[in-house]
Specification:
Layout lengths: L1 H6 L5 E3 L2 E3 L6 E6 L4 E7 L3 H20 L2 H17 L1 H12 L3 H22 L9 E4 L2 E9 L2 E5 L5 H14 L3 E5 L6 H12 L7 E3 L4 H10 L5 E5 L2 H13 L3 E5 L4 E5 L5 H13 L9 E7 H17 L18 H14 L4 E4 L17 E4 L6 H4 L6 E7 L2 H8 L4 E2 L1 E5 L3 H10 L4 E4 L14 E2 L2 E2 L8 H4 E9 L10 H4 L3
Parallel strand pairs: 7-8, 7-10, 8-9, 10-11, 12-13, 12-18, 13-16, 15-16, 18-19
Antiparallel strand pairs: 1-2, 3-4, 5-6, 6-22, 11-21, 14-15, 17-20
Helix pairs in contact: 2-8, 3-5, 3-7, 4-5, 4-7, 5-6, 6-7, 10-11
Bound molecules: nicotinamide-adenine-dinucleotide (NAD).
Length: 501
Amino acid sequence: MDHVKDRFARGAQYIAGEFRPGTSGATHSVVDPATGRDVWTYETAGDADVDAAVGAAKAALPGWSGATPGERSGALHRFAEVLAERADELARAESLQCGKPLRLSSEFDVPGTIDNTAFFAGAARHLQGSAAGEYSADHTSYVRREPVGVIGSIAPWNYPLQMAAWKILPAIAAGNTIVLKPAELTPLTSLMFAQAATDAGVPAGVVNVVNGTGKGAGERLVGHPDVAMTSFTGSTAVGKRVAEIATGTVKRLHLELGGKAPFVVFDDADLAAAVRGAVAGALINTGQDCTAATRAYVQRPLYDAFVSGVADLMADVRLGDPFDQDTDLGPLVSTAQRDRVAAMVDRARGYATVVTGGERGADKLAAGAYYLPTLITGAAQDSEIVQHEIFGPVLVVLPFDSDDEGLALANDTPYGLAASAWTRDVFRAGRATREIAAGCVWINDHIPIISEMPHGGYKSSGYGKDMSSYSFEEYTQVKHVMYDNTARARKDWHRTVLGDR
Ligand code: NAD
């Protein structure tokens, strides 16, 4: 743990290219959720730190927004290279603060982040707009796509590095500057990401990170008059609060909120593929994934075989030390999160059947925030465990009869972030992609993401897109420029005001 304390000895605020301590007067501890040991205690950001970070972003804005796309792209290419050189350090820090298996952070989080950085290095030169033209006989019109300004972003703890990347990259590729507030539990890799940007030649002040509480630093950032846009990823409940504050200062708002992804298995599906897909899709990142498979609806002929297949495979999953290459599943991010999940499963025992799991880890796992992979059946569609986000390694399975019923059940929660359908019938697949109301629908898979494609929610899962060129819609504003072509003082339309004078 000393290496973390040494690495961040100057503090947890990264402002204008320098680390410094927070001035709120309070501290927060990063805890290794696999062991319960303190990793690092940092001074949290107060109002003055948020103001300084926003000030640094504001000062850096003219230079960065005025740079050519080629210059910004060059800096982002170097940024991707620096991240690649630091891949091992990033993966270890991510596993330490989140408890996620090193296999996951080194094969998914870190390469995904590097690829995203490389993608936005290219995309920075491809901001699209409509062609210039004479849409009235006397004028030429064109559109300028401009950055929004200083962006204030707030991120959750489940994928801290990727969330930092998803927030920072499209914003700065489009010429904005940014202040990011990561979740209190997981400050490390966001700080490393911001420092790597500076080391790669992104000017100081373009990327700033403040680490503090949601109510303190978070609300200060969202309400700040010099912040032009708030981009928030987190729970729907906090998203609503953020929206209230942002609306008060008429900010542009991008909300990536909770999910409760359905996993619909039709009776012609490849059963083995669906069983593996459900277990992997439900347990990735110990289920702390906003797109995780949480509700499997299985058509009656496959239902029993699916339930027993999932139970068997879940029982085979190895929990353990995140740094052991044989570990499949780490702890949850904190004992508080583990206890929330356990309480929800315990309440479900009153109305449903816990087929496997439903317990904390014993023996060597007891000191950590572990929870066994859990399979639940027999819950009613309107029950808490089916309707509400669990954010833990828990899959609920329900049967359905007709295709109509399966698709209706899939849509029957307030969320709409992601979904999957499992079938070998192209027409069933097509229908599922049309009728499921979610920002992403997978066919015969569940979880993969890709830098070129957008990620974002429908319904209570929020609005706006992360990743891909679609994210530029959030981080740019379009300006109509109209030139008079006539060079006449007397314009035809002046008649409406001045008559024939
Ligand atoms: P959370 O909503 O509790 O916290 C998210 C962030 O908001 C943290 O940085 C927190 O400090 C901050 N915050 C809390 N209160 C605030 C306030 N009043 N004002 C401003 N900021 C405040 O979420 P979490 O527990 O960190 O993360 C889990 C949630 O994130 C889940 O609901 C999950 O589905 C969601 N999530 C969504 C996506 C997506 O892309 N849609 C991705 C990852 C996680």
